[in-house]
Amino acid sequence: MPKVLVSDPIDQVGIDILSQVAQVDIKTGLPPEQLVQIIPEYDALMIRSGTRVTADVIDAGKNLKIIGRAGVGVDNVDVTAATRRGIVVVNSPEGNTIAAAEHTLAMMMSLSRYIPDANQSTKSGKWDRKSYTGNEVYNKTLGVVGLGKIGAHVATVARAMGMKLLAYDPFVSVERAEQLNCRLVELDMLFQESDYITLHIPKTPETANLINAAAIARMKPTTRIINCARGGIIDEAALAAALQEGKIAGAALDVFGSEPLGESPLTALGKEIVLTPHLGASTEEAQVNVAVDVAEQIRDVLLGLPARSAVNIPGLRPDLLEQLKPYLQLAETLGNLVGQLAGGRIESLNIGLQGELATNQSQPIVIAALKGLLSHALQERVNYVNASIEAKERGIRVIETRDASVRDYAGSLQLTAKGSLGEHSVTGALLGDNEIRITSLNDFPINVPPNRHMLFTLHRDMPGIIGSIGSLLGGFNVNIASMQVGRKIVRGDAVMVLSIDDPLPDNILEEVKKVSGIRDAYTVTL
Ligand SMILES: NC(=O)c1ccc[n+]([C@@H]2O[C@H](COP(=O)([O-])OP(=O)(O)OC[C@H]3O[C@@H](n4cnc5c(N)ncnc54)[C@H](O)[C@@H]3O)[C@@H](O)[C@H]2O)c1
Ligand SMILES: O=C(O)[C@H](O)COP(=O)(O)O
């Protein structure tokens, strides 16, 4: 039974799903060195933001197949290292959207009405009404930085509260912004005009310290900033100084450059700052959503099925994935076949997408073909996650061509590989029941299903050659399951495809090549 390590607090519903297919060990709060020590025994790791999955952890995780992040941000995972090792990284892109958006709105209101400090004061026995006169958000301008899933929900609710909306997001269309009643503006204008600024962007090299002393200097003294996105987007020292000097009116932060927060100039400030310990996703509802979402993906991957929200393989809608699955199998089989025909040291792979395949998203097909191409050399070390990197590192040139007019089958795929044994080409298609057929070899028409062991010959079309090969193999006790010949013209060049029950030893292959009329012969194991 596979083993899953759960190293952050995850809702029980997720543990129950994992337990259907795996032994689940829950060990939270592990020091990094202990995680490195125990990770080799696990097939999967399930985390939230508390566990740092460094390159050291990934290198030590010899059996790791999947890292599941029960939440959105994967900035605590070295995704590049995982990809290189062929480990799929999945998350739950939408499971905690509402929770994070509602926390943002709660932070905005808390800040405006000084609720945390007023609560503290009242609990201490005081009745201080004078110190906590706040502001209304009605008719104020909210600047939304990042109009993705959370930013959009914040904007929708803020609009219902009567706020005017500005947004900055270079990847969002004007139409989408208008749909959300937001005016798309440049960052500088958003800083200058907003009464409230809320951040909903990932932390990237471009967004690190986006809110720094220079940015704050452009804001109004009445501006309040809310960050429920990621620590490090705000320069915390500059923010603390600005609040102390009254350059802006307030800030509410749920996330920090370093977590747990520990010593910080922010904690010494008064009612103008509201701090929470990364609680954006901490609702019962969100925790059930993300636990189910990610546990199901870990379960599926451990069962050999694809994950629906992998961050390091091209995303595909589940319905599209279902539709493409037989073609992925076709691409992998043809890749494996043409890779062996072309020999080692593949220089290039030409992927010809024909018929309905020419109009589909091609990236998964390309990856499947590369996985097949490299599988003979790399065996189980190559998978959908690392096939592209492995091909790139081997200098394999990938060329994609499309021809929707080829209509012999609904969709067909032609792979042409150039390697140490020359250039070879195979075409394949799916029959009605999704059965794979190899429909041409080096442009010679054939119609054979793939078989575990196969022998291909290139020969001259002449009487007696089929009999010679048959008796030669019979003499060596090689059992032929099926045989087919393909030719373009009578007595010209031809190909022969034999499905055989056992692998053909090299010495017999050499005998095949010596048969009169045979130009070349190849064996493959699929
Ligand atoms: N506090 C929490 O507990 C909590 C919970 C969930 C998500 N988050 C964080 O909230 C953030 C937003 O999450 P989401 O689900 O809305 O993500 P999302 O991917 O749906 O939206 C992010 C948006 O940011 C935009 N963006 C990217 N780079 C930008 C840049 N340089 N300038 C402006 N816009 C940029 C993108 O175009 C996108 O629209 C993430 O950082 C996520 O990790 C925090
Ligand atoms: O990216 C996220 O999903 C949030 O930051 C939530 O993090 P958490 O799962 O550690 O609460």
Description:
Belongs to the D-isomer specific 2-hydroxyacid dehydrogenase family. Pathway: Amino-acid biosynthesis; L-serine biosynthesis; L-serine from 3-phospho-D-glycerate: step 1/3. It catalyses: (2R)-3-phosphoglycerate + NAD(+) = 3-phosphooxypyruvate + NADH + H(+); (R)-2-hydroxyglutarate + NAD(+) = 2-oxoglutarate + NADH + H(+). This is D-3-phosphoglycerate dehydrogenase. The chain has 526 residues and is an alpha/beta fold. It folds into 4 domains: 3-94 and 286-315, Rossmann fold, CATH 3.40.50; 97-275, NAD(P)-binding Rossmann-like Domain (Rossmann fold); 316-450, D-3-phosphoglycerate dehydrogenase, domain 3 (60s Ribosomal Protein L30, Chain: A, 2-Layer Sandwich); 452-526, ACT domain (Alpha-Beta Plaits, 2-Layer Sandwich). It is 34% helix and 23% strand. It has 17 helices and 22 strands. The protein has helices spanning 12-19, 32-38, 55-60, 79-84, 97-113, 115-123, 149-160, 174-179, 187-193, 213-217, 236-244, 284-302, 318-342, 363-378, 387-393, 465-475, 506-514; strands at 3-6, 23-26, 44-47, 66-69, 88-90, 141-145, 164-168, 183-184, 196-199, 224-227, 250-253, 273-275, 348-355, 397-403, 411-419, 422-430, 436-441, 444-448, 453-460, 480-487, 493-500, 518-525. The strands form 4 sheets. It has a 7-stranded parallel sheet with strand order 8-7-6-9-10-11-12, sandwiched between helices. A 6-stranded mixed sheet has the order 14-13-15-16-17-18, with helices on one face. The chain has a 5-stranded parallel sheet with strand order 2-1-3-4-5. The longest helix has 25 residues, at 318-342. It is elongated. 42% of the residues are buried. 3-phosphoglyceric acid is lined by residues 48-50, 70-73, 96, 278, 280-282.
